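Lecture notes, part 5. Sequence design as translation. It can be helpful to think of inverse folding as translation between two languages: the language of shapes and the language of residues. The source text, in structure tokens, appears below.
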């Protein structure tokens, strides 16, 4: 009998043949199934270790796991994985090799395991090898990526530094994803380094430098996702300029652009404009550490991202004063944290497809005006001294607002399809007094599963020092949207 991979296996005994004195009714019907069917059962286990243990059930299952097309190792020590891979050496049947190793192993073990995986040369390789610890990494903790001549897709995640093979080509590789705490693309630049003649999709996440030389070794590259972690401030602009040149002349599209700033320096406006020229489909631009709290807000222009579907910006002490360019015609989700945008109403009007908008920043002395026919989720947090609220959103289903205002404020919300609402309003200026009590804030919460009842929380505190106490009054009200 031959499997679909072309291997010849011993045929099981017919189900009607008695075995060890058993009659036809006692025959091993499962063991009588073809090998392809039994392999489908083992594939569903999604673990090579569990598949190998089925050999304890009967002789019929022994060694059958070595014919699996998909190999998954989760939490198995590297030595045992390497030993198991020896059973699949030079096998053309392995379509997937998924290896996930726990923390606490060395780079030498990773290199040995990768060499064993290269001999198997699966069609797809997922290799998750954290290493010893992020805090004890040294420049000697390096993984050398060997050549996989038959592999179409490689995804490698590690805390270690990744190096190319000394020579050779990844002749069949079309998709490459590298995520490392230290990813030095400069090691890919020597003339003897591996080539990527068939690479079409590239995803890089880490300390990325010397991007241009590496991209020159990928003549068929069409799509790139790139995230900069731990890169020096002066290195971002040359890398983005190189990527822009490749995108302009090589027809490469940028699906994801991530820039994570780790320094205490302020954000350069030219960096945002360089990111906009790449026109990514997804933009993530953040400050990872808050060390700018003692500085004043800097005025920065927000450029247009016409092809962006998702934008997430978290920048400290930044105020977007002007909007440059045209419409965000494809934008579906926008999240702004810590930064301020002066003209939120105009920004929303430039986003005809926007469904999710979340703004969490210290906005003061402003009017909240949101008119959108596409918005479905709106979060506005930490608005101080608000002067008015005007929200008209016919498709809105979820609304979260937190703002401070004086007792005299106009609030107009038109959202007929609203399902979940959370409103918190704090009072400033002259207090609203009820005898000895001063009204501090009101909050309203309504969830989808609440049909007729709504919870109104009232927080009040005493004006007289002899009565230092506070109370919560909870009222259940019947509330109707008009």
């Amino acid at each position: 009998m031959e499997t679909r991979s072309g291997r010849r296996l011993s045929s099981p005994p017919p189900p009607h043949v008695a075995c060890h004195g058993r009659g036809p009714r006692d025959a091993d019907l499962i063991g009588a199934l073809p090998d392809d069917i039994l392999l489908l059962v083992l594939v569903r286990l999604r673990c090579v270790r569990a598949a190998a243990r089925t050999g304890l059930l009967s002789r019929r299952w022994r060694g059958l796991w070595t014919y699996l097309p998909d190999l998954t190792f989760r939490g198995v020590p590297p030595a045992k994985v390497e030993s198991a891979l020896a059973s699949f050496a030079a096998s053309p049947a392995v379509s997937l090799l998924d290896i996930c190793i726990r923390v606490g192993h060395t780079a030498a073990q990773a290199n040995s395991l990768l060499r064993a995986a290269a001999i198997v040369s699966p069609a797809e390789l997922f290799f998750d090898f954290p290493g010893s610890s992020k805090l004890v990494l040294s420049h000697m903790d390096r993984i050398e990526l060997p050549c996989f001549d038959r592999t179409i897709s490689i995804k490698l995640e590690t805390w270690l530094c990744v190096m190319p093979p000394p020579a050779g080509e990844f002749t069949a590789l079309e998709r490459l994803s590298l995520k490392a705490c230290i990813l030095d693309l400069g090691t890919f630049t020597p003339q003897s380094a591996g080539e990527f003649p068939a690479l079409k999709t590239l995803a890089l996440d880490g300390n990325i430098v010397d991007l241009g030389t590496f991209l020159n070794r990928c003549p068929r590259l069409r799509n790139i996702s790139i995230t900069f972690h731990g890169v020096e401030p002066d290195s971002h602009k040359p890398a983005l300029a190189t990527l822009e040149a490749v995108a302009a002349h090589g027809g490469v599209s940028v699906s994801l652009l991530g820039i994570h700033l780790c320094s205490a320096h302020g954000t350069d406006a030219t960096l945002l404009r360089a990111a906009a020229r790449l026109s990514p489909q997804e933009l993530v631009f953040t400050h990872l550490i808050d060390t700018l709290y003692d500085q004043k807000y800097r005025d920065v222009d927000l450029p247009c991202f016409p092809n962006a579907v998702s934008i997430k910006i978290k920048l400290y002490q930044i105020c977007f004063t002007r909007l440059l360019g045209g419409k965000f015609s494809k934008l579906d989700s926008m999240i702004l944290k810590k930064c301020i945008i002066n003209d939120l109403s105009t920004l929303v009007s430039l986003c005809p497809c926007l469904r999710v908008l979340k703004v969490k920043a210290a906005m003061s002395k402003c009017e909240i005006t949101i008119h959108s026919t596409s918005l479905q989720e709106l979060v506005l947090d930490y608005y101080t001294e608000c002067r008015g609220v005007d929200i008209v959103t016919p498709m809105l289903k979820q609304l979260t607002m937190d703002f401070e205002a004086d007792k005299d404020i106009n609030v107009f919300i038109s959202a007929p399809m609203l399902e979940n609402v959370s409103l918190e309003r704090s009072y400033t200026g002259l207090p609203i007094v009820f005898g000895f009590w001063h009204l501090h804030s009101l909050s309203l919460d309504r969830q989808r599963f609440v049909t007729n009842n709504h919870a109104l929380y009232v927080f009040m505190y005493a004006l007289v020092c002899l009565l230092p106490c506070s109370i919560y009054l909870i009222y259940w009200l019947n509330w109707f949207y008009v």
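The translated text above is only one of many valid answers, since several sequences can fold into similar shapes. The chain is about 15% helix and 35% strand.
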